[in-house]
Design a protein that fits this description.
- The chain is an all-alpha fold.
- It has one domain (3-13, 22-47, 54-88).
- 56% of the residues lie in helices and 0% in strands.
- The protein is built from four helices and no strands.
- It has helices spanning 3-11, 17-34, 61-65, 69-88.
- It starts with a helix and ends in a 5-residue tail after the last helix.
C-alpha cells in the first residue's frame, strides 16, 4: 500500500467520514489534473477556476505530489467507492 493510501486510511475521522474522505479525494484528483493526466470520469471531478487547483495547505498535498500516477488513480478509486458507499448510507452532505 502506498504512503498516500496508508495516510488516508489513518486520517479518516469516524465523526466526519464524508469530509475526511473528500479532502484527500480532491487532492488526488487535482494532482492528476495538474500533471495533465486523465482523471477518471466516474470521479466526476472538475477543477475550479484557479489555474492550479491543488491546495498547498492541505495535509495530503505533499503526499499526492510524491505519489505515482498509478498510486493516485488507485487511491482515487478507493476513495470514490468509499464516498459512494457513504452517500448511499446517507452520510454525505
Amino acid at each position: 500500500m502506498s504512503d498516500l493510501l496508508h495516510e488516508i486510511k489513518r486520517e479518516i475521522d469516524s465523526y466526519d467520514q464524508w469530509g475526511s474522505a473528500m479532502a484527500p479525494f480532491f487532492d488526488v484528483a487535482a494532482e492528476l489534473w495538474w500533471r495533465g493526466e486523465c482523471v477518471p470520469s466516474h470521479w466526476q471531478y472538475t477543477p475550479g477556476m484557479a489555474s492550479d487547483p491543488r491546495d498547498p495547505e492541505s495535509y495530503f498535498f505533499e503526499l499526492a505530489g510524491d505519489s505515482t500516477n498509478d498510486e493516485l488513480i488507485y487511491a482515487g478509486n478507493v476513495l470514490e467507492r468509499y464516498t459512494r458507499n457513504l452517500d448511499r448510507r446517507g452520510l454525505s452532505y
